[in-house]
Amino acid sequence: MTSRFATADSDRISNWTLTNKRREALAGYLFLAPYLVFFLVFLAGPVISAFVTAFVEWELLRGTYRFIGLENFQLIMEDDLFWIALGNSLYFALMTTVGNVVVALCAALALKSIRLGHTLFRIAMYAPVVLSISVIGIIFSRLLAPFGLLNAGLELLGHKGFNYLADPNLVLPSLSLTTIWWGFGFPMLIFLAALYAVPETLYEAARIDGAGRRQILWQVTLPLIRPALLFIIVTQFIAHIQVFGQPYIMTNGGGPGYSSYTIVLHIYRNAFSYYHMGYAGAMALSLGVVMFVFALAQFRLLGRYTEY
Amino acid sequence: MHRKLVSRLLLAAMILLLIGALPLMAQDDGEVQELGTGEIEINLWSGLGGPDGQSMTDLITRFAEENPDVTINYQILGWGTFFDKLSAAIVAGSGGPDLMTLWHSVVPQYALTGHIMPVAEQMFNLGMLDKDDFSPALLDSVTFDGEVYPMPFDNYGAGLYVNTRLLERAGISVDDPPEDGEEFLEYIRRLTWDENGYNPGDEGFDADNIAVWPLSIGWHRITVTPALYQWGTDVVTPAPEAEVLIDSEEAKAAVQYFHDLVFEHHVLPGVNWSGELMLNDGLSMYLDGAWTYNFYNTNMEDGQIAFWPYPRLGPERGSTIMWSHTLAVTSNIEPDVLEATMRLIQFLSDNSKEHSIKTGMPSARLSLRTEDLADQIWTFGPLTTQMAAEGVPEYQSERFTEVEDIMGAAYSSIFTGQQTVEEGLDDAAQRIRRALR
């Protein structure tokens, strides 16, 4: 009897447990659902669609749509503007990522070491991030104009000004500096969080051992914030290789000549100004591959020195 | 307490910063104005901003008041994004305009793909407007398969705005525009001053410290393209041949003339807009479009700026470029909306003289370019006289946007010294051929 009851109880408990598990799972899926729907409709869907588009000839205004295999990729090989734009984007991404990391890290180190005005400086340094690129673009276009504020300041100091946005050699560094000013607030916050996570005891031990400031930075701080550093480098590089708004607004879409013409501008123009949707899709896919390769390389190169 | 105060001050500063940035954020265009209360709705997209946009808005508002059966959903879009948004709307099949302003140069992109209808032809056939009242060259440029597609609204060109105070300083009469390319170079020399008041060629002239620039060549469509005609060539020939001419010897000679202006004659190459420099006596001459009339008219001191025809620079002929803002109607328009839209086009065309007076943009209707306008608009006489005698409509192409982007980048590379004329134009020709394939 006892055992029968015991079996029945255990069955009930087992059923109850299963139901509970199911309930838990259901709750999990329900919590996931909003993001999942968003992901499928706005991310996975377009990615699959773009993948298919890369293999068709799709002329928007003419309404042509036909499968052409790898022809779009063959056209990429012959398109000198694709390679010019890719080169510019890589140069910009490299410059801006390095600049952002250096400026953000210095700002975070400085913020961590001050007490008075800590909140003020933190908010002030993060503030540009909330502005849109249109606003940043217009402000910096005026600032960097030949008769703009920056040159006026240089003239006051007795120096001759520059034509920052119309000089082929200065235009990408100028856009990069604009972007660093605009965006270093976000990596700064990440670095700041990582710096606060380093135990104070390690600094004390290093100081007792006679380490100077520079040695503490190189031997204690940097090794311990490497995961944050890797995260910043990879995400910043991926973000900056896709630069679009800055040249679109500040250099008339890539000038002078093609000096600031970037790969996403080239994709955008082909898709929405010239209506070559299939070709634009193939370039977007190629850019995805390039970004994947660079991200992988960064993980391989930096990841081996990183402890989590 | 102290921290609280700092936080509040910071918050106030942030709000001020954002308020300061608001005017910049508010520059976004595209807001829909609903004019009128009638049942028939016309969606109108216009690329005319600034003074010509204001004049167009006034006309449309008046039409809506006089036609109570019509509501006009009127949207002004910047030219920079106009065509991208238009294409997106066309492809989406909804949300696009019934009536739109189009440069005549881009009309083939939309006419040959069946996205706009031959509304002008229909209006001529219905007797709403007279075909003979338009320049044949202009109508030809918007005619496909024997039918006129959009209705030309205005017909304008470019020329040379000159600073009369600086002309006087150089001893040049405002009634004495340059006769040819050689004389133009001499004017350029006399209208350049360094900080010590020397002209080029004078002993002690300091080319690194120019105080007054002789000329600005901002936008290549105004400056270089008319010169191509003067050397007997163009960018491309019309479709279906669409032969690329920009790497021809004639084109290279025309562009070389401008290259030399920049690199040997101290002409400003890379500044897109130099209007303020003209008003501040930092610039003597400015090749620019008819639309700039209003800027000077509003801002100059009495008679400070005058207007000369586009100078004759090349060996073949004199010429200036001709453009038109046309009124185009989408192909999938409803019949009752089409009837109201044709009424609106007729109204705008009939009142285009009023638009001329306010904006300096001559009407496309020959009968409305009356002589009295020359007394009211100081650019009108030289502009319309040269357009009638030497005006050439800008080249057209089914791939106009793409070709123009290529040409803009090529000129920019050449005038900033990144490429020679030969290299820049050869590359451009190769890219255009690829685009037209």
Describe the structure.
The complex is a heterodimer of chains A (308) and B (437). Chain A starts with a helix and ends in a 5-residue tail after the last helix. In chain A, β1 and β2 (64-67) form a beta hairpin. Chain A has 14 helices and 2 strands. Chain A is mostly helical. Chain A has 2 domains: 2-53; 76-303, Orthogonal Bundle (MetI-like fold). Chain B has 437 residues and is of the alpha+beta class. Chain B folds into 2 domains: 32-155 and 324-383, 3-Layer(aba) Sandwich (D-Maltodextrin-Binding Protein, domain 2), CATH 3.40.190.10; 157-322 and 399-436, D-Maltodextrin-Binding Protein, domain 2 (3-Layer(aba) Sandwich). In chain B, the strands form 3 sheets. In chain B, strands 1, 2, 3, 4, 5, 8 and 15 form a 7-stranded mixed β-sheet that branches. In chain B, strands 9, 10, 11, 12, 13, 14 and 16 form a 7-stranded mixed β-sheet that branches. In chain B, a hairpin with a 2-residue loop joins β6 and β7 (147-148). The radius of gyration of chain B is 24 Å and the shape is globular. Classes of the chains: A mainly alpha (308), B alpha+beta (437). Chain A binds chain B through residues 60-63, 78-81, 117, 119-120, 123-124, 127, 131-132, 134-135, 138-139, 146-147, 160, 163, 166-168, 252-259, 261, 269, 272-275, and chain B through 3, 6-7, 10, 14, 17, 21, 24-25, 27-28, 83-84, 87-88, 90-91, 109-110, 113, 115, 208, 270-272, 277, 399, 401-402, 405, 408-410, 412-413, 416, 418-419, 427, 431, 434-435.
